[in-house]
């Protein structure tokens, strides 16, 4: 056995132990997912996706947050099945109330392009669902986040969820801490997952129409006064709701487009934008985790890896179920 082959098998063994730990915590890791799922059928899949993501992030680091958002909004609705990317012939999840104008169309086009590159090398083999999750994990590491091994083998749905289903599953930025805990519990995630995955608000942007919920009719007590005034200067150049809707602000002014633990420092300092961010301080268990992650980035990264992996296994379609969509935006004919 060559040194490279030996290293590969050692990597598989170590990651197998990692995923066994996750399965023990999660209670139901899909058995048909595997780190080396495409080793025979499309051995270049990981390298192709990684090369494309590197190009994207080098050109525009903010796309890492866009890719992470796609994972969250896909997996939380009817599982990680790439139903979010469907636009035809049915009503798309992309125009559902929690998603409409909040998902980056440029990020969706990037995923379509990446899938096209994989499809050219291995037609009908690699799913859109796997492409989404792996692309996000690679992008996350490129902007400073932890390395997250990704189990592969998801298959794609042929149908999108209804507007009502999307609304019922995507947690609102206005939820209370009890509402947040219940939402995550409904998805098989616990309090540690809630606080860790909220850490993805360390990068990305918010639309001013959402920020306005914290500024009008009165400034929310969630926000530091000077921070609120700064948000108002950006988001309220006039009283036109139509104009405000087109503006965005960075979720994190400390380290824009970098994945780190500064989100938790922002929460403690009342400079995190969403009400749901501030609500993490309204329960003793979540508050303790916010304080821990604010002071210990390594511990945050370790938990984020676990929580991301659990989220990326929610409601997956595997085996003979589902399909491998040739185009992510349309179901197979």
Automatic annotation (TrEMBL):
Record's catalysed reaction(s): 2 a phenolic donor + H2O2 = 2 a phenolic radical donor + 2 H2O
Residues annotated as binding heme b: 201
Keywords, sorted A to Z: Calcium, Disulfide bond, Glycoprotein, Heme, Hydrogen peroxide, Iron, Metal-binding, Oxidoreductase, Peroxidase, Secreted, Signal
Binding site for substrate: 171
Main localization (coarse): secreted
Disulphides: 42-122, 75-80, 128-328, 208-235
The protein, known as: Peroxidase
Lineage: Eukaryota, Viridiplantae, Streptophyta, Embryophyta, Tracheophyta
């Amino acid at each position: 056995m060559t040194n490279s082959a030996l290293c590969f098998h050692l990597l598989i063994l170590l990651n197998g132990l990692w995923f066994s730990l996750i399965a023990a915590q999660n209670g139901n890791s899909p058995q048909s997912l595997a780190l080396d799922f495409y080793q025979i059928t499309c051995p270049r899949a990981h390298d192709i996706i990684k090369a494309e993501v590197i190009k994207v992030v080098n050109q525009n680091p903010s796309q890492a947050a866009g890719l992470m958002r796609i994972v969250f909004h896909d997996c939380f609705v009817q599982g990680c099945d790439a139903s979010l990317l469907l636009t035809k012939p049915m009503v798309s999840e992309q125009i559902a109330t929690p998603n409409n104008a909040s998902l980056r169309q440029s990020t969706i086009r990037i995923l379509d392009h990446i899938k096209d590159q994989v499809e050219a090398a291995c037609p009908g083999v690699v799913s859109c669902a796997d492409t989404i999750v792996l692309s996000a994990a690679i992008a996350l590491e490129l902007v400073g986040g932890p390395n997250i091994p990704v189990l592969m083998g998801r298959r794609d749905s042929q149908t999108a969820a209804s507007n009502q289903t999307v609304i019922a599953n995507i947690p609102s930025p206005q939820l209370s801490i009890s509402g947040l805990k219940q939402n995550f519990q409904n998805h098989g995630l616990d309090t540690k997952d809630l606080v860790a995955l909220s850490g993805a608000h360390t990068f990305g942007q918010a639309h001013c129409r959402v920020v306005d919920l914290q500024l009008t009719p009165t400034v929310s007590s969630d926000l530091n006064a000077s921070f609120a005034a700064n948000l108002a200067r950006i988001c309220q150049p006039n009283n036109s709701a139509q104009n405000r809707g087109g503006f965005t602000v960075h979720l994190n002014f400390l380290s824009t487009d970098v994945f780190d633990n500064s989100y938790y420092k922002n929460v403690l300092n009342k400079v995190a934008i969403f009400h749901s961010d501030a609500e993490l301080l309204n329960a003793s268990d979540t508050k303790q985790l916010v304080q821990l992650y604010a002071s210990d980035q390594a511990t945050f990264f370790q938990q984020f890896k676990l929580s991301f992996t659990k989220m990326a296994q929610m409601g997956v379609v595997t085996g003979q179920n589902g399909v491998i969509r040739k185009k992510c935006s349309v179901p197979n004919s």
